[in-house]
Amino acid sequence: MIYFYNNFHNGDIHYSRTFVKDIMNKLGDNDYCYLHNCDPSILKDIKKLKHNNSFISFDNWNLISDYPIKHNSQIIRTDDNFFINTWVGQKDMSYIHTDKDISCSLYAHYNLYKDIYNELSIPIEDIEYYIPEIDFNNINKSSIDKFISNNKYEKIILIANNIPRTVRMDLDLNLLADKLSIDYPNVLIALTNKTELKRSNVLFIGDLISEPNLNEISYFSKFCNIIVGFPSGPYVFTMIKDNLFEINKTFITISDNIYDSYYFESKSEMLHLIDHNMDNLYEILKNKQ
């Protein structure tokens, strides 16, 4: 059995997906399982990949698990199994904090997996190959397609208004959604998380699907003109090849680290809001109308 493992969050799992698929393809006929704490549905498009999302926890950075793994180890071999750590912060953050402080960008992940591929004795592709892609044929997208086909709005702004667990949150994106929905009635404001905000041009994406998850949000993002959010779960899932190669799309990343905005070379417009200032963010969006 070959195990991939990652004790961190939805975005961490998403950024590993294309590497995991490639490793599975190159290692061939084996049983594969991903050990993580997130909803197994976030990787449901990867066939033949089993999941265990209840095995692992942290206590003061000590990994508690029934498996012979450590959060700072890269590959652990036992008699019958391989355990591959997909967390980009392993080895004391050495892949994140380089001379360029490249954070959780594709560049950091690529450096990590170059070492993993070398240990596994398999070739690695050029970096662009590993921009995340989701097989949307394996998700629930019919209601989204129906909504988009009947869309009457001039633009769609997607706001990832979740409250991240690991990102400084001192800017209320629900207030931003409220103001935009009033000032621009011909623009659809799509939200990733439920709020009390009720206007005809405000949509909670989960209302379109019976079991909303991050893959469906990612699919919906393909039809959005502007995507706004903190570098966390729902926003990270919009970082897919379909979007990054779309010239008429704008990302606005709210983060202290510029590499969260420039995950990889993009044909889309990538803007970076470092000051977490609502007026500045609104002004950027106003200029995009």
Please give the share of residues in helix: 25-40%
Into how many domains do the coordinates divide?
A: 2
Please tell me the overall pLDDT: 89
Task: Indicate the CATH architecture of the largest domain.
Answer: 3-Layer(aba) Sandwich
What is the CATH topology classification name of the largest domain?
Answer: Rossmann fold
How many beta-strand segments?
Answer: 13
Distance between the termini: 52 Å
Radius of gyration from CA coordinates: 19 Å
CATH homologous superfamily annotation of the largest domain: Glycogen Phosphorylase B
Poorly predicted ranges: none
Order of helices and strands: EHEEEEEEHHHEHEEHEHHEHEH
Structural class by secondary-structure content: alpha/beta
Major beta sheet, strand line-up:
10-9-8-11-12-13
The biggest beta sheet reads:
6 strands, parallel
Provide the β-strand percentage band.
Answer: 15-25%
Give the overall shape: globular
Query: What is the CATH class designation of the largest domain?
Result: Alpha Beta
| Tally of contiguous helical segments | 10
Written overview of the protein:
The protein has 289 residues and is α/β, with parallel strands linked by helices. The protein has two domains: 2-130, no CATH class; 142-286, 3-Layer(aba) Sandwich (Rossmann fold), CATH 3.40.50.2000. It is built from ten helices and 13 strands. The strands form three sheets. A six-stranded parallel β-sheet has the order 10-9-8-11-12-13. The chain has a five-stranded mixed β-sheet with strand order 3-2-1-7-6, with helices on one face. A hairpin with a 4-residue loop joins β6 and β7 (82-85). α1 packs parallel to α3. It is globular and about 65 Å long. It starts with a strand and ends with a helix.
